[in-house]
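Recap from last week: sequence in, structure out.
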Amino acid sequence: MMMMLNFSSVKMSGHDQLAHCLCELTRLLWKLLLPLLLVCVLLIAVLVLLVLVVRLWLQSNRNARRAADGRPTVAFFHPYCNAGGGGERVLWCAVRALQNRYPDVNFVVYTGDQGVTGEQILDGARRRFNIALPRPVHFVFLRHRLLVEPSLFPHFTLLGQSMGSVFLGWEALTEFVPDIYIDSMGYAFTLPLFRYLGGCSVGSYVHYPTISTDMLTVVRERNPRFNNPDLVTNSLFLSAFKLLYYCLFALLYGMAGSCCDLVMVNSSWTLDHILSLWRAPNRTSVVYPPCDVSGFVDIPLEEDGAKKCHPIVSIGQFRPEKDHRLQIKAFKKVLDRRIVDTPLKLVLIGGCRNQEDEDRVLMLRGMCHELDISDQVEFKVNVSFEELKTELEKATIGLHTMWNEHFGIGVVECMAAGKVVLAHKSGGPKLDIVVPFEGGQTGYLADDEDSYAEAIERILALPSSTRLQLRLNARHSVSRFSDQEFEACFLAAVEPLMGTLER
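Predicted structure tokens:
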């Protein structure tokens, strides 16, 4: 009996020791909690103080600059302003419109282009887009554009480029502090930087959301795309991980964009995605991009039944999402079927931003060689406006193959030139451009090799009079995308933002 009591006492003593240890540990953690809280508060205070000091320093720089100039400044962030694409056309039309409306405001363009002068950039805009500014703009040449190059981030590209844009934006902000900052190229993560550190009013013209709900759907459904390779789609784990990564990135992207004072989007498709991500409906409006319809509407329209060759022209930068491979494959199918008697030619017209784009052109040339169609495919790289117009004048079909194209300026240019357009059945072309006009058809839509090949054959099989009527419908429908319409809508949209300069 005594032995049992002793054993019980020992057991109870062990339990008491454990309870005592837990109490001591709790006491220790409680004692450490207050110092930890104090350290956290101190670090937050130092961070806030640092932000305030940087903000005051940047604003003092702006005040000193404005006192010297006597004028406020509006700055556009466009690291590839010399690229020659549709986004650059929006930039120069926007600058021209603002210069005409606000003669007492200075304008700055942040660019990462090296080896060129401001005069050469403006001359390139005049030659490529037929746009001449009423007065010069000031260029701030950024040295670290490499930080937003996709080649620098073979993995986690969206996050890498976005973080790189923050550093590039910091370089821009420290070089020049404007009164109004407009991101015209889609670098949303620079917006908080200029608003909260630079104290600027900020706006954004969104051509294409960095991430979209469609991208989330592609990953969720494990569909292969140019940005969703087979390695990911074939793995449940990698697909789940990428979906989580995309969801977290979409949250950050939405937080960055929500700080905008003004948001302009280029199409109904982009509007839907930006509203779902940035959640700023009262500050968001659709401003269709300016398309040089006036430069093409003087191309004569007549029946083309007597043509000895039917050129098919594609307009678009040589980027992977433009899917030139699909164009070449569909063209090859048309040639193989030999249903069309008239000789055909595929003309790929586009700009190259960098060495990666130039390598892509070489790859496409090699693809044409492998398919034995090199003689029927021409590449026109970085052409002038006059050469673009000449090629469109000779063309019969305007071809476009990008999935979920945010808008499609090249499609509009083809329609203005009186070409029969064949565009991808998604995005801006489907929702805004290749839609019935006054009850008449304006073009065709397709979504894969077979449907593109069939559509090309259907177009060429039409009587030339029917084809002419369709071309007339297309030309008449694009007046809503003219430079004049863009300028009116753009100026109306930015008026509240420009009004902040008067306060």
